[in-house]
Amino acid sequence: MTTQSQVQGRVVILGIYVTDLTFRAARMPLIGETIAGSAFAMGPGGKGSNQAVAAARAGADVVFCTRLGNDAFGEIAQATWKAEGITSRAKIVEGASTGAAHIFVDDTTGMNAIIVASGAAGTMSAADVDEIEADIASARVFVTQLEQPIPAAKRGLEVARKHGVTTVFNPAPALPLDDDIFPLCDYITPNETEAAALTGMPVNDIDDARRAADVLLKKGVGTVIVTLGEAGALLHSAQQSVFVAAYRCGRVVETAGAGDGFTGGFAAALARGEDAVSAMRFGSALAGISVTRPGTAPSMPTRREIDEVLGREAEAAR
Fold first, then answer.
1. Residue 4 pLDDT > 70, yes or no?
2. Is 228 annotated among the ligand-binding residues?
3. 84 lies in which domain range?
4. Total domain count, the chain
5. pLDDT band at residue 60, thresholds of 50, 70 and 90?
6. To which H or E segment does residue 244 belong?
7. What is the pLDDT of residue 318?
8. CATH number for the domain that contains residue 193
9. Is 255 within a domain?
10. In the prediction, which pLDDT does 316 show?
11. In contact, 64 and 87? CB cutoff 8 Å
12. Residue 180: left (phi > 0), alpha (psi -120 to 50), or beta?
């Protein structure tokens, strides 16, 4: 239940920042092989930071908590958040590096493979969450993932629940979890792979996604949203089961960051008072735009762009 002290549109995100080092090529090299790439780019990334950028561009008042090293990549992070109007709660860890990610992008399909090294953010703990309790208490929505240590994510969900803040848990990357984390989740947003890992069930289509979602509901989750890549997304709860097809906004250039965009957009829409299905459509439209652009955080669209896509859909439905 929202309290009077919670700010309309505010989203607090706990997660990591990494600098993305993106290589484009026709295929992945084999072990021991060197191949020629077609392009290289460096830019801001990390699931939590990407979600923060997506939510901020979508109109949310965003606070982001993480840890950084005292280095050039950390400076890129702070400059990124300042430019996006994101309030930083980043602790600087001396002697540790800021995280980085190697991203391979297939030139033909836009599909990706990623290696993440969390760096300083990998040292986050429950104490980091306790330091931002006032920020969480003031928010409408709290978001976290699993690139930082699980105890920090769980503590964030606990603090949000304590203050009646809506919780959105993006269980990525897929890791083994104790069952006591699931009742802390108002919403959980796994993709097919993560849903399969959490439930031990194959998730290859919408029916599979519903069955996996039922398992997560039994574990105590309020509402499950399974993102199904180019197929779309399924929202499943005890009250409703709604599938939203993916938005086709142009040629797919790069899919890295699309899931982060969805979660950030979904959180932003919830924070301004939209219902869950409308928020899912908003997040899906955001993700549909993002895959037509290179990069992760840089690919995130503005609220105006998202509203234009949703407006065209509404007009076509008339």
1. no
2. yes
3. 10-29+37-317
4. 1
5. very high
6. strand 241-245
7. 66
8. 3.40.1190.20
9. yes
10. 72
11. yes
12. alpha
**What letter represents residue 247's amino acid?**
Y
232 labeled binding residue: yes
| Closest alpha carbon to 49 in 104, 115, 102, 99 | 99
- Partner residues linked to 112 by β-bridges: 105
Please tell me whether 231 is known to bind a ligand. yes
Q: What is the mean pLDDT of the chain?
A: 94
Q: Is residue 235 part of a domain?
A: yes
Residue labelled with tokens 């920020």 = 135
Pairing of strands 61-69, 223-227: unpaired
Residue 77 has which token pair?
Answer: 């992070």
Of 303, 290, 271, 285, the C-alpha closest to 61 is 271
Question: In this predicted structure, what is the pLDDT of residue 5?
Answer: 67
Strands (E), 58-176: 61-69, 87-93, 98-106, 112-119, 141-144, 166-169
Confidence at residue 1, expressed as pLDDT on a 0 to 100 scale: 45
In a domain? residue 200: yes
- Residue 148 buriedness (CB in 10 A; 0-12 / 13-18 / 19+): buried
Give per-residue pLDDT as tens, 236-248: 999 999 999 999 9
18 in a labelled binding site = yes
Active-site amino acid positions? 260
Is 193 annotated in a binding site? The answer is: no
